[in-house]
Amino acid sequence: MALTRLSFEDSKNAGLQLAIASSATEAELDILLKVAQVEGLIQEATTSGDAEASKPAPDIVAVALSKLQMDSSQVVMIGDTPYDIESAGQCGVGVIALRCGGFADSQLAKALAIYDDPADLVKQYANSPLGRSNGASLK
Question: Taking the CB of residue 63, how many other CB atoms lie within 10 A of it?
Fold first, then answer.
């Protein structure tokens, strides 16, 4: 079973709502979810078709918050680019950053926490912002 799926399952089992806020098209996102083996674990998804502007504009994250019917203070987003952090930040959403996106820590510095990759986040899950939260998670 893919480690990404385990991370999603851990989050869902902890009572978190899971959403995807992606700049991909709906068809691209369907493929990405299958490759990551997380289809069926996501409650809501937003794609480029749901927003006028892509990240770093806040549109996609704002649509995801609306679909979740949650306040930004109840949400943590996982991202691997500074654009994710900027987009989420404009909506008041904190971000857990992953280094696997290829950006330097200095570019991810506004994140709540930085992990190497999903495996590192899973390993440290209990002490991560996700392990300590009681809300939703935008991925």
Answer: 21
